[in-house]
Recover the amino acids of this structure.
């Protein structure tokens, strides 16, 4: 049975692309660092879009989240002029820390391997 694409998956991809462009070109807030949209998940009824982002520098993640939440209405209105949907989902922004978690796990694995190699050399 082939993989079925749900409409919400396609809409999420489209929203992610458009939001990345809108944030880069139209959100002119100096508190906003380099923002990357890492994932968008849209509810099946298309009423909500959870937008996951990363930001550089990472210590500015709380400020960036507040700026994006404040700009959500503007971004939603701009999306409505770029995407032909009857209802544009409400945008909810979340900082995506999976990269940091992955880096910590990689460091822990590297330390464990180095420790194991040191113990085997004895």
């Amino acid at each position: 049975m082939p993989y079925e694409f749900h409409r919400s998956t396609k809409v999420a991809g489209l929203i992610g692309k458009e939001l990345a462009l809108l944030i880069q070109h139209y959100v002119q807030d100096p508190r906003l660092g380099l923002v990357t949209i890492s994932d968008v998940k849209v509810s099946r009824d298309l009423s909500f879009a959870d937008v996951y982002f990363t930001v550089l520098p990472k210590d500015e993640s709380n400020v960036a989240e507040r700026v994006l939440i404040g700009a959500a209405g503007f971004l939603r209105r701009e999306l409505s002029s770029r995407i032909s949907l009857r209802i544009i989902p409400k945008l909810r922004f979340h900082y995506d820390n999976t990269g940091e978690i992955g880096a910590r796990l990689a460091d822990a694995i590297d330390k464990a391997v180095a420790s194991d190699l040191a113990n085997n050399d004895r």
